């Protein structure tokens, strides 16, 4: 091992196999610490992004409430920057609780709002999250019918039987369910038939640039066909260009979501005016 190689290993503590694994571990620990600090100081909020009916950009079918945390400098950190790191930890469960609590509060305060909130299948077995859900559903007579719970495809497949039973119980209370990031994971079609999701959200990797991408066109059409076969409402994620929106509308996608229609914001107009611009 040369002098340069020795310097790379110099700061790596015993028990770590190589500098890369140590760097990844250290980064993950830093992310977890940042999120834990944000939770302790209640520096957590929802950013709202509209989901619009295809071909009707001036209307909103519902909003998605996306969890955000503030770091020590006050910078807003999106979930994509930390959610994978905390997903399997109790901090992940606490974040799910806070997102649900804030979403339920928004539904209670804004009776015309329909809102989707992300959750991990792991939170089904987390009693504080279940307690938050039960309390929120009892708070108002229409809260349940205006709540959509989004579960990622990869999360749903961790405990599919538990998810199926959970959905059956909640759908009796008119809560809707969305299968998020469809196409990105490894859903067993046997379980897809049993899940009875109300909404199918097609992963953005198949949507971006679809108007000019024959492969994405084939994949998205196939995924949308699956959704229709199982009577699921289809939503295309990550719509960023007018030509993509036009193509998706032409092939019969029900709703569109992405920066073309609006970036997630912690200060939507309806939140400050107490008037939710939602088409129901």
UniProtKB/TrEMBL annotation:
InterPro entries: Cyclic-di-GMP_PDE-like, EAL_dom, EAL_sf. Gene3D superfamilies: EAL domain (3.20.20.450). SUPFAM superfamilies: EAL domain-like. Residues 28-278 form the EAL domain. It comes from the Bacteria. This is EAL domain-containing protein. It comes from Roseovarius pelagicus.
């Amino acid at each position: 091992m040369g002098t340069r190689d020795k310097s790379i290993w110099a700061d790596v503590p015993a028990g770590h196999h190589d500098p890369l694994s140590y760097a990844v571990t250290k980064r993950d620990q830093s992310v977890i610490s940042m999120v834990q600090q944000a939770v302790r100081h209640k520096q957590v909020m929802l950013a709202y992004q509209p989901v619009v009916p295809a071909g009707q950009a001036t209307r909103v079918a519902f909003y998605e409430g996306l969890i955000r945390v503030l770091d020590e400098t006050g910078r807003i950190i999106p979930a994509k920057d930390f959610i994978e790191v905390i997903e399997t930890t109790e901090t992940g469960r606490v974040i799910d609780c806070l997102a649900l609590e804030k979403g339920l509060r928004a539904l209670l305060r804004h009776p015309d709002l329909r809102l989707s909130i992300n959750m991990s299948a792991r939170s089904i077995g987390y009693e504080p999250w279940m307690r938050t859900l039960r309390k929120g559903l009892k708070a108002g007579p229409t809260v349940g019918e205006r709540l959509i719970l989004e579960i990622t495809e990869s999360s749903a497949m961790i405990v599919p039987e538990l998810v199926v039973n959970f959905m059956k119980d909640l759908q009796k209370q008119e809560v809707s369910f969305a299968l998020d990031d469809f196409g990105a994971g490894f859903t067993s079609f046997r379980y897809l038939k049993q899940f009875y999701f109300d909404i199918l959200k097609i992963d953005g990797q198949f949507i971006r640039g679809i108007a000019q991408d024959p492969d994405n066109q084939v994949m998205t059409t196939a995924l949308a066909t699956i959704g229709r076969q199982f009577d699921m409402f289809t939503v295309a994620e990550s719509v960023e260009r007018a030509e993509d929106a036009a193509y998706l509308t032409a092939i019969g996608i029900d709703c569109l979501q992405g920066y073309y229609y609006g970036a997630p914001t912690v200060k939507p107009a309806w939140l400050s005016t107490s008037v939710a611009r939602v088409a129901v």
